[in-house]
Write a structure and sequence with these properties.
51% helix; eight-stranded mixed β-sheet
Length: 1158
């Protein structure tokens, strides 16, 4: 080891040369780490001058400053003193930055905002729609049609290309509507983020100015006050009783005291408050997105945008995909530290050309993709079979007998492909979901992903926050006790003009009760919070907004209900001294003067009457509020109902403590209020040089005789209106509601009972859990043990951010579709991991919104249940139109297939099929997906996660209804061939067409040719099919109910059928379109053709309804089977709950026996 002289020489080199202390110590043959150097200095303190040691430490700090300036590593801002901060940031507290320098830094570093994933352009969304499997099959069919027609003898006829062009029109129309609706949803989200642009107060060029928070730059001098949201990470320089709520970042619900001092390093600690230290965050730092709840501060902005702690978490979420990203960003310090490293690695990865549309697919998307694959395979197989059979039978084109059979069969195969592929499904799904999203906006739900609302409809578990979602998010005083009497307070929220204070025993007004007035007046004088009425500039509505500590707001609001306003009391009773609340004292103290201000005596006598009786006229009033047990210990008297002050006996104190326990058991937050009058202050509050500590001053006022207990005030965050019923509605829909909160277990249980999450028959020990039991030794239980708990628990208390993530993982392992609500940065990983992440629109951070699938614009749990119901309705509508459209397409395929096999003329041309698909089939399909109301759908069980969109009994119905449509239409066609043509088979009709003399005779007699009469038969069958499909659309509105039930409830259906009928009559009557392009002749078929078509439609209606009646029992049994499977799973969960309950009872008995044995 180096000797004393070597160490001293090393210190000299540090002082004189300003070199790296580590390098200097190398010359002393010492180890090179700084901690060893500190130990060396301690061992040789006598030999080394103390000044040298201090200079060494200063040199170490200078090295930190140098590294910070050069950006060699992440700067530990909390370890730099104000002078060093000023040097690093090139700014000063007094003058701040110049406007010119701020502009330079703004251009260099960019705006102070979180980066958002690049919004896909309309073109990118359009391409994604095109890449849908069904659409790609259609494109292939269109290309094949154009190529075949280009090589046919009629290649010069433009009409021959109409089919291919029409298919492309369908494709582009579908993709365009889908891209438009997706783009509109993204635009609505951006509009939401722009509704509120926060401002910040900074010092620029020596003056205080207000600028948009996005314009803050590194080095700005930031001024923070009560109610401000910290806009960037900042290092505090001046902190005056500052408290910050960091719940959105750390998950801790309590306000955190902040100081400007540098925390001294403790042995074994890190000195910065990180990691395993006493606090989760450094006490001299304030972080972006946290709210100032008390005091004020001046601070240097040290990190902005994506370099803040919030930004690092957001960066991890953006870089990673889905589940891995959620786990990586699970609210840990490690995630913050590793973010820059992962960012560099992420840049090396080659990004795909298009956004990933496969990750985190919803059940509907997966079902439709599977369905598309099945339909594609079916279409290819059908086309090949028909092509082979047609070529083998040498089927001729009756409109062009000279063409080759194989060429004609290629066209028929393409036509069959178009008929087999339900190209309307993607379009109908998109329209149905986008319409549903628009409806959800009216219900205060903004959907970020268009298919997410459907997934919420199959949710089996809703994991919800308490504060602001189940509850108002506004602490409200509901009870108080004063002068031995109980009082009730009505009204919710922060509006002091609504509600009243009444006697609990009889409901009479207690606004003039001496106990109520004196208690609230003293409490108001001991508060730093205010509530103000503000007007929304957009809609002109007014609301009351609190500024300050959340526990003081209920006092201010309740005081306003009896006419006590801080703006009236404070000028008349000026505050001369204050001791802020602290965790050690559990009390706050203020002293108000009553002798100097004009009129103050009258104000004091009116509102603090018990202290001004019998001619008493004190000059000062000390007001104390805080924890009841701490205050009660110092009180020696209390007030009677008539306003007199009497001694407080031990028995009285015991009764007061029982009252405190009674209120606390109701999940109420109880504060005690006391006061003491004085003629003189025990010290001069204006003397800043007085040799008394704050604690000594506190003791000299509070820990003295004559402290009078005035009363107790009890507040709660009340449940939102409608939430208890919404929870019951969710339970009736077999959806489990789980509350995850940071509150203590007793409070969580009480709130859960209030909102019906916990029912009277529930065993609280089995259904409510402190999250500490998930990680008893700091590490989480095994997956199996956690799964056992999450199957039964309805209330998770004292939850941390990572607990939410573990709960979501557990539910997903159980094949549950889970919806998770959240508002904070710490909730983002769980929101991203959940099947549906639901962020709060009012209280939610941008990071939480970015990780979510939908946003509640009113932060209300009731909106989630509404979304569940709407999601189920949308899914039911999609099932109905999928069943309808598949049955229609199956019928069209069967009709053509049977014509080829039976060797009768094909009943319609490719253009007629396209017209049916685009004009007469599609509108009713869309209308089926726009059902607004479905009776009692919320009482159904959520469908299993892996359930296909079309069930086996629905496939059976699709086939049956397709056969019915085919049978009735073919019957009309056969009649038409007999009535108009006089022949049925292709050979007979082809013989007539080739019989020139016969055709000449028909022409001479003024009769239609054989080809024209064939078109008459096709026209009658075409009309019959359109009418039958319209009838089928009405019968498809329910799988079991008769057609006449709620026949006209869906207005969209009436419009769709009207449009289809108008299109039909245009197609058969408008010259040019009817006779030249579509080859339909509505006038020439006569009344006989129309009557035949009518009977075909009636036959379809009767047969479809008869089938519905026949299969109703089958449908019921299928639903009962699914319900039975879900019931068995529920019974297993209940069995586990009972086992847990029994084990807990046994454990409690064992604990009771152990002391007895001892």
């Amino acid at each position: 080891m180096a000797d004393t002289e070597d160490i001293a020489a090393a210190a000299d080199r540090v002082i004189t040369g300003g070199i790296d202390p580590t390098e200097a110590l190398r010359g002393a043959e010492a180890q090179t780490d700084a901690e060893f150097a500190d130990n060396v200095f301690k061992q040789h303190e006598e030999a080394i001058n103390v000044t040298r040691k201090e200079s060494y430490l200063s040199a170490t700090n200078l090295l930190r400053v140098k590294e910070a300036k050069e950006g060699k590593k992440d700067t530990e801002w909390d370890k730099l003193d104000p002078a060093q901060l000023s040097d690093v940031l090139s700014t000063s507290v007094e003058k701040g930055l110049t406007n010119h320098e701020a502009q330079i830094r703004f251009e260099r570093d960019g705006p102070n905002e979180l980066e958002k994933p690049k919004r896909p352009t309309f073109c990118v969304l359009f391409i994604i729609q095109i890449l849908n499997l069904i659409i790609m099959l259609l494109i292939a069919a269109a290309i094949a049609s154009i190529v075949v027609n280009a090589t046919s003898p009629n290649s010069d006829d433009p009409i021959s290309y109409v089919e291919g062009i029409a298919i492309f029109i369908i494709v582009f129309l579908n993709a365009g509507i889908g891209a438009f609706t997706e783009n509109q949803a993204a635009g609505a989200l951006e509009a939401l983020s722009k509704l509120s642009q926060p401002k910040a107060r900074v010092v620029r060029e020596g003056e205080e100015v207000e600028i948009p928070s996005t314009h803050i730059v590194k080095g700005d001098v930031l001024l923070l006050g009560v109610g401000d949201i910290v806009p960037a990470d900042c290092r505090l320089v001046i902190a005056d009783d500052l408290k910050v709520n960091e719940m959105l970042l750390t998950g801790e619900p309590d306000d955190v005291s902040k100081f400007a001092r540098m925390k001294k390093k403790k042995k074994g600690g890190d000195g910065g408050g990180h990691g395993g230290g006493e606090k989760l965050t450094p006490e001299n730092m304030a972080f972006s997105s946290c709210m100032v709840t008390n005091g004020k501060s001046t601070a240097y902005v040290v990190e902005i945008g994506m370099n803040t702690r919030v930004g690092r978490i957001a960066k991890l979420l953006q870089q990673s995909d889905g589940k891995e990203g959620a786990a990586a960003a699970a609210g840990s310090e490690k995630a913050d530290i590793e973010a820059p490293v992962k960012a560099k690695k992420a840049k090396k990865k080659k990004e795909p050309c298009l956004p990933d549309t496969k990750s985190n697919q919803t059940p509907l998307q997966r079902s439709l993709q599977d369905l598309g694959v099945k339909i594609g395979i079916f279409a290819i197989v059908v086309c090949l079979i028909v092509f082979i059979i047609g070529v083998a039978l040498e089927v001729k084109d009756l409109d062009n007998p000279e063409s080759e059979p194989w060429l004609y069969m290629i066209l028929i195969a393409v036509t069959l492909a178009v008929a087999a592929i339900p190209e309307g499904i993607p379009l109908c799904v998109t329209i149905s979901l986008s319409t549903g999203c628009s409806d959800m906006v009216k219900k205060n739900v903004l959907v970020r992903r268009i298919a997410a609302v459907e997934t919420l409809g199959c949710a089996s578990v809703i994991c919800t926050d308490k504060t602001g979602t189940l509850t108002e998010g506004k602490m409200t005083m509901v009870k108080m006790w004063a002068s031995g009497q109980d009082f009730e307070i009505t009204g919710k929220g922060f509006n002091p003009t609504e509600g009243s204070i009444t006697y609990a025993e009889n409901g009479d007004s207690a606004a003039s009760s001496p106990g109520v007035v004196s208690t609230l007046a003293s409490a108001v004088l001991c508060c730093n919070t205010r509530v103000e009425e503000e007007t929304d500039p957009d809609d002109g509505t007014t609301k009351w907004v609190p500024y300050g500590n959340s526990s003081e707001a209920p006092i201010i609001v309740a005081a306003g209900k009896v006419g006590l306003w801080s703006k009236d009391l404070e000028p008349e009773l000026p505050r001369v001294f204050e001791v802020p609340f602290s965790s050690s004292r559990k009390m706050m103290l203020t002293v108000c003067e009553t002798k100097n201000a004009q009129g103050s005596k009258a104000v004091a006598e009116k509102n603090l009457a018990p202290f001004f009786t019998e001619g008493k006229s004190p000059n000062f009033v000390a007001n104390v509020k805080g924890a009841p047990n701490f205050i009660l210990k110092d009180c020696d008297s209390w007030t009677t109902p008539d306003g007199k002050i009497v001694p407080l006996t031990a028995e009285d104190k015991e009764n007061v403590l029982k009252k405190v326990d009674e209120l606390s058991c109701q999940a109420l937050r109880v504060l005690a209020v006391a006061a003491r009058v004085m003629d003189e202050m025990p010290f001069d509050p204006k003397d800043k040089n007085i040799e008394m500590t704050t604690d000594q001053k506190f003791v000299s006022i509070v820990k003295q005789p004559n402290l009078v207990l005035l009363g107790l005030v009890a507040s709660i965050d009340p449940e939102r209106d409608g939430v208890p019923q919404a929870v019951l509605d969710a339970k009736s829909g077999h959806i489990r509601v789980v509350m995850i909160t940071g509150d203590y277990l007793p409070t969580a249980k009480a709130i859960a009972h209030n909102v019906n999450i916990l029912l009277p028959d529930d065993d609280e020990d089995a259904c409510a859990l402190d999250c500490g039991k998930l990680r008893p030794d700091g590490d989480y239980l095994s997956n199996e043990e956690i799964d056992t708990l999450t199957k039964t628990v309805k209330v998770f208390a004292r939850a941390q951010p990572e607990d939410k993530l573990e709960i979501v993982k557990s539910l997903q392992r159980q094949e549950k579709v889970s919806a998770m609500t959240g508002d904070g940065v710490n909730d983002a990983p769980a929101l991203k991991r959940a099947n549906i992440g639901v962020a709060m629109g009012i209280q939610g951070t941008e990071v939480a919104k970015g990780a979510s699938d939908m946003i509640l614009t009113d932060d209300n749990f009731c909106s989630i249940v509404t979304a569940v119901e709407k999601g189920r309705i949308i899914y039911a509508g999609i099932q109905k139109f999928v069943a309808f459209i598949l049955s229609v397409h199956l019928a069209e395929v069967l009709q053509i297939f049977l014509c080829i096999v039976a060797q009768i003329p094909i009943m319609r041309t490719p253009l007629q099929i396209l017209f049916l698909i685009l004009v007469t089939d599609l509108p009713p399909s869309v209308a089926l997906g726009m059902e607004r109301v479905v009776r009692n759908i919320l009482n159904d069980r959520p469908r299993p996660k892996d359930q296909p969109i079309v069930l086996w009994w629905q496939w059976q119905g699709i086939v049956a209804n397709g056969l019915i449509l085919s049978a009735t239409t073919i019957a009309v066609y056969i009649w038409g061939l007999s009535f108009y043509v006089g022949s049925y088979t292709v050979d007979d009709i082809l013989g007539k067409i080739n019989n020139v003399s016969l055709q000449d005779e028909l022409e001479a007699a003024g009769k239609p040719s054989t080809i024209e009469t064939l078109s008459f038969a096709r026209t009658s069958a075409f009309i019959s099919l359109v009418w039958s499909e319209n009838v089928r659309a009405y019968t498809s509105r329910s799988f079991t109910d008769p057609v006449w039930v709620d026949l006209c409830a869906n207005t969209a259906m009436q419009k769709a059928i009207f449009f289809a009928q108008v299109a039909l009559y245009c197609a058969v009557f408008i010259p040019g379109l009817s006779d030249t392009i579509l080859r339909l002749f509505g006038k020439e078929i006569g009344w006989e053709g129309w009557v035949a078509a009518f009977f075909g439609a009636v036959g379809t209606l009767v047969l479809c309804e008869l089938y519905k009646c026949a299969c109703k029992g089958q449908v019921r049994r299928a639903e009962e089977k699914v319900a039975e499977q879900l019931r068995l799973a529920e019974e297993e969960r209940e069995k586990l709950a009972q086992e847990r309950q029994a084990s807990m009872i046994a454990a409690r008995k064992a604990k009771q026996v152990e002391p007895q044995k001892a």
